[in-house]
C-alpha cells in the first residue's frame, strides 16, 4: 500500500493548490482513513490527531451515527436548493436553536465559518443602519473578503477590500498591551480601551462588536471574568450588536454547547461551523436573536448561498448533535479537560522552562513556548518547526500556531490517548528546553 502514499504525494504536489502555503516546498502527510482520535496513511502508519483538523472534528473521525445520517439522507435527497422547505434542514436548525439561549429561534446556514461571519456582519449593519465593525487584533474570523478584514491576525497583509473595520486589543494578560499584572486589571483596561475606541469612532457609526468568545487560532486566550459581560454592557449602552464567533470554540470544544455558556453574557448573533457537525460536510451559519430576526420579517435579507442548508450538511448536524447529547460528549470534554489534560499540561509546565504559559479549558489548550521565561521572548519559528517534525515523528499530529502548541484533540479523547500525547509532548519539549 506504500505506493498509494507515494501516489497521493505525487498527485497532490502536481495538482492541488493548498491554502496557507508556499506551494514549492510542500510535503504533506498523506492521510487515508481515520477513527475516533486516530488517523492513518495508506501503509497503516497511525497518528493521534491532536489537531482535530483545524480544531474541527469535535466528535472524532468517522462517528458511525453521523456517517449513517449522511448516507440515509443521500439515498433520499442528496441536494435541494435553499428556496424550498426541507424537513432535515428544519430539524438541523431546530437542534441548533435548542442549544442557544432563550430568544434565539432562527438559523441562517452558510458554507463555513468565514461566510457565517460575513452574513452576521451584514445582518448587524442592516439591523442598526450603521457601518463599522469592531474586532480584535488577536483574532481569526475567516478568509473571505470581509471576514479576513475583521480578522486581526492578518492586518499586516494588504487586504483592505472591505469597509469600516476597527480593531482593538482584547485581553491577553501574558502579553498585556496595558501593563496589567492581574486578570482584573487586564479586564478593566481592555473594557476601558473598547469604550474609548467606540467613543472615538462615534457610537452612531458602529454596527457591531465581533469577538471570538475565546480567541482560538490567535492563542486560546480565555477572557478574564467580567470581560464579556462588560462588553455586553458597552454594546447595550451604544446600541451596538454583539456577535460572538463560536466557529472554533462552539459545540463541545470548551465542554459547553457554546463557549459563552460558561460566561455571564448573551450575544445578539452567534456564528458557528466546525464542531456543529465536525466538518463531515462543509457547513456554518448564524443563530439569530428574535429581535434581529424580526428586522427581516417584512424586509428582504439580501444574501444567500446555493448550498445554504444543504441536506447532507443538515443530516450530519442532526446526527452529530443527537450523538453528542446521547453520548454525553460535551460533559466528557469538560471532565477530561479538568481531570486529565490540565493537570498533565501543568506538570509539563513545571518540568519545562520552554513553556511560558499554559492556558485553556475543556479540550482547548495552548502551550505558549518562549526562548526565555523572564523576557517572554517567543520561541523562534525554526524551533517551532522542529517541534512539529518531532511530534509527527512520534505519531502525533499537532496544531502549531506561531510560538504555540495548541492541544486540541477531539472531544471524545480518552485518558489513555491524552497520556500517550503527554509523553510525546514531554519528549519533544525536552529537546527544546
Ligand atoms: N471563525 C473562527 C473563530 C475560526 O477559527 C475560523 C476557522 O478557523 C473561522 C471563523 C473561519 O471558518 P472557515 O474556515 O470555515 O471559513
From TrEMBL:
<dbReference type="InterPro" id="IPR015421">
    <property type="entry name" value="PyrdxlP-dep_Trfase_major"/>
</dbReference>
<dbReference type="InterPro" id="IPR005814">
    <property type="entry name" value="Aminotrans_3"/>
</dbReference>
<dbReference type="GO" id="GO:0005829">
    <property type="term" value="C:cytosol"/>
</dbReference>
<dbReference type="GO" id="GO:0030170">
    <property type="term" value="F:pyridoxal phosphate binding"/>
</dbReference>
<protein>
    <submittedName>
        <fullName>Aspartate aminotransferase family protein</fullName>
    </submittedName>
</protein>
<dbReference type="Pfam" id="PF00202">
    <property type="entry name" value="Aminotran_3"/>
</dbReference>
<dbReference type="GO" id="GO:0008483">
    <property type="term" value="F:transaminase activity"/>
</dbReference>
<dbReference type="InterPro" id="IPR015424">
    <property type="entry name" value="PyrdxlP-dep_Trfase"/>
</dbReference>
<comment type="similarity">
    <text>Belongs to the class-III pyridoxal-phosphate-dependent aminotransferase family.</text>
</comment>
<keyword id="KW-0032">Aminotransferase</keyword>
<keyword id="KW-0808">Transferase</keyword>
<dbReference type="InterPro" id="IPR049704">
    <property type="entry name" value="Aminotrans_3_PPA_site"/>
</dbReference>
<keyword id="KW-0663">Pyridoxal phosphate</keyword>
<dbReference type="InterPro" id="IPR015422">
    <property type="entry name" value="PyrdxlP-dep_Trfase_small"/>
</dbReference>
Amino acid at each position: 500500500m506504500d505506493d498509494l502514499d507515494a501516489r497521493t504525494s505525487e498527485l497532490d504536489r502536481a495538482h492541488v493548490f493548498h491554502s496557507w502555503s508556499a506551494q514549492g516546498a510542500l510535503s504533506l502527510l498523506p492521510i487515508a482513513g481515520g477513527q475516533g482520535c486516530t488517523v492513518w496513511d495508506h501503509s497503516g502508519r497511525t497518528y493521534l490527531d491532536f489537531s482535530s483538523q483545524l480544531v474541527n472534528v469535535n466528535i472524532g473521525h468517522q462517528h458511525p451515527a453521523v456517517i449513517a445520517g449522511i448516507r440515509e439522507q443521500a439515498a433520499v435527497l442528496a441536494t435541494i436548493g435553499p428556496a424550498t422547505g426541507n424537513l432535515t434542514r428544519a430539524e438541523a436548525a431546530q437542534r441548533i436553536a435548542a442549544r442557544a439561549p432563550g430568544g434565539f429561534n432562527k438559523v441562517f446556514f452558510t458554507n463555513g465559518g468565514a461566510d457565517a461571519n460575513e452574513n452576521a456582519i451584514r445582518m448587524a449593519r442592516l439591523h442598526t443602519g450603521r457601518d463599522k465593525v469592531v474586532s480584535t487584533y488577536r483574532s481569526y474570523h475567516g478568509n473571505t473578503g470581509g471576514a479576513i478584514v475583521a480578522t486581526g491576525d492578518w492586518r499586516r497583509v494588504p487586504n483592505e477590500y472591505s469597509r469600516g473595520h476597527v480593531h482593538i486589543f482584547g485581553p491577553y494578560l501574558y502579553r498585556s498591551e496595558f501593563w496589567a499584572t492581574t486578570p482584573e486589571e487586564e479586564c478593566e483596561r481592555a473594557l476601558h480601551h473598547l469604550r474609548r475606541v467606540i467613543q472615538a469612532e462615534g457610537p452612531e457609526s458602529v454596527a457591531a462588536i465581533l469577538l471570538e468568545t475565546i480567541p482560538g487560532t490567535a492563542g486560546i486566550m480565555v477572557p478574564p471574568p467580567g470581560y464579556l459581560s462588560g462588553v455586553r454592557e458597552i454594546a447595550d449602552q451604544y446600541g451596538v450588536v454583539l456577535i460572538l464567533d463560536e466557529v472554533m470554540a462552539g459545540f463541545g470544544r470548551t465542554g459547553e454547547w457554546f463557549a459563552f455558556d460558561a460566561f455571564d453574557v448573551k450575544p445578539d448573533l452567534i456564528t458557528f461551523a466546525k464542531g456543529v457537525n465536525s466538518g463531515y460536510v462543509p457547513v456554518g451559519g448564524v443563530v439569530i436573536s428574535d429581535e434581529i430576526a424580526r428586522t427581516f420579517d417584512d424586509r428582504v435579507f439580501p444574501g444567500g448561498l446555493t448550498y445554504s442548508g444543504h441536506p447532507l450538511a443538515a443530516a450530519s448536524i442532526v446526527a452529530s448533535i443527537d450523538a453528542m447529547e446521547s453520548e454525553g460528549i460535551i460533559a466528557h470534554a469538560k471532565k477530561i479537560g479538568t481531570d486529565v489534560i490540565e493537570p498533565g499540561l501543568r506538570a509539563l509546565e513545571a518540568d519545562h522552562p520552554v513553556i511560558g504559559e499554559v492556558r485553556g479549558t475543556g479540550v482547548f489548550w495552548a502551550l505558549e513556548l518562549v526562548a526565555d521565561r523572564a523576557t517572554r521572548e517567543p520561541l523562534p519559528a525554526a524551533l517551532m518547526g522542529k517541534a512539529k517534525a518531532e511530534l509527527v515523528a512520534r505519531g502525533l499530529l499537532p496544531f502549531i500556531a506561531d510560538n504555540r502548541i495548541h492541544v486540541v484533540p477531539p472531544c471524545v479523547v480518552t485518558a489513555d490517548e491524552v497520556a500517550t500525547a503527554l509523553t510525546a509532548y514531554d519528549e519533544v519539549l525536552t529537546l527544546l528546553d
